[in-house]
Design brief:
Length: about 170
Amino acid sequence: MQVIEFQLSQANFADQGTFYINAGLGFDALWASAKTSSVERPKIHECHLQKRIEELLPDAPSSWHVSSESDTAELANEIRVWMTLLMSELDRMRSTAGVLQGNWLKVGSERILKGRLFYVTGDVQSAMIELRAAADFFADRQGMSIQELVDRKSTRLNSSHLGISYAVFCL
């Protein structure tokens, strides 16, 4: 499941404001392994992976500003260009295998997600390597040992289902 969200800044005013573009991915196989049903139209926070556009496209602006002075046609065109690039990047992540082949899951809790994805594709050895890397990364935090990561309900490795649904865009 692919989700794109336009997030308003909390510091907006009536005549000017800032917004961000976020992308999220939800995986049917992970929802199934957690014994929860897939979310038909998930919110960004319900996705397994959430990133801002600049994390997926490093040259993208981290935010957009709009005011009563803004040229809305120019702004719309700029967003259209970045959305086209973002959609292309998300298309590369259309499957569990596509996400695992990419370089999107690098540190911290992303390594836990990567481990879970390896597990649901049947690669238990790679799953354990990723969970060990995550446990090492979080070594100074309570509840993040390799055993606790394996046993934790949210990261439980207990399913071999595979699948990711087609795109849904929540704009």
